[in-house]
Amino acid sequence: MANHYRYLLLMVLCGCHTCLSDDSIQNEMGPLELTENNGILYATCRMRPNSKLTSGMPKIYGQVMFKQEHAGGKLSVVINLHGFPAPDGQHRAIHIHQYGDLSEGCSSTGGHYNPLSVNHPDHPGDFGHFLPLHGKIRQALDSDATLFGGPSVLGRSVVVHAKEDDLGRGGDAGSLLHGNAGERLACCVIGMARPKHWDNFQRKHRRL
């Protein structure tokens, strides 16, 4: 009888170990897209004008694309936007915001995504500001944001602002929150994507 109980206990312990091992394997694997794309994650964000846009402000369209090869690697970002006035001497700030909620236009996206509770411009999605050329912003950059794990920006939003980012040097509270970048012209929600969006753009614009 004692041997029978020991056998049952051994089976229970082995079963628990199997469950834990399966969970560990799943955590290590991450999203299904990691195995489909050889360990690389891709995301995209299709930009649309703010549904609450002030009359007379430019209507911005385009996309922001993301690629990250591993959890500790830099996030590669390509910004491809159009609809700015031409010529346009106004730099436009672009940031990742906390919520992927467009129910009230771009105002419902919340403030800058700030998982480390730091001041602007040190939020991981503070891309800076860009000067449109011929009504377009086409820019490649590396970001400290990530598509992996708890701090992932998947499901959050990208917002294009009307003004230049003061990079936290404005001397007021707003400067340290959002760079006094002004009205939200356009926004979009970051979602997982297939590699073809990134690859097609890179083939078309190899200089980026």
TrEMBL record:
<keyword id="KW-0186">Copper</keyword>
<dbReference type="GO" id="GO:0005507">
    <property type="term" value="F:copper ion binding"/>
</dbReference>
<protein>
    <recommendedName>
        <fullName>Superoxide dismutase [Cu-Zn]</fullName>
        <ecNumber>1.15.1.1</ecNumber>
    </recommendedName>
</protein>
<dbReference type="InterPro" id="IPR024134">
    <property type="entry name" value="SOD_Cu/Zn_/chaperone"/>
</dbReference>
<keyword id="KW-0862">Zinc</keyword>
<keyword id="KW-0479">Metal-binding</keyword>
<dbReference type="InterPro" id="IPR036423">
    <property type="entry name" value="SOD-like_Cu/Zn_dom_sf"/>
</dbReference>
<dbReference type="GO" id="GO:0004784">
    <property type="term" value="F:superoxide dismutase activity"/>
</dbReference>
<feature type="signal peptide">
    <location>
        <begin position="1"/>
        <end position="21"/>
    </location>
</feature>
<dbReference type="InterPro" id="IPR018152">
    <property type="entry name" value="SOD_Cu/Zn_BS"/>
</dbReference>
<keyword id="KW-0560">Oxidoreductase</keyword>
<dbReference type="InterPro" id="IPR001424">
    <property type="entry name" value="SOD_Cu_Zn_dom"/>
</dbReference>
<keyword id="KW-0732">Signal</keyword>
<comment type="similarity">
    <text>Belongs to the Cu-Zn superoxide dismutase family.</text>
</comment>
<feature type="domain" description="Superoxide dismutase copper/zinc binding">
    <location>
        <begin position="61"/>
        <end position="190"/>
    </location>
</feature>
<dbReference type="Pfam" id="PF00080">
    <property type="entry name" value="Sod_Cu"/>
</dbReference>
<comment type="function">
    <text>Destroys radicals which are normally produced within the cells and which are toxic to biological systems.</text>
</comment>
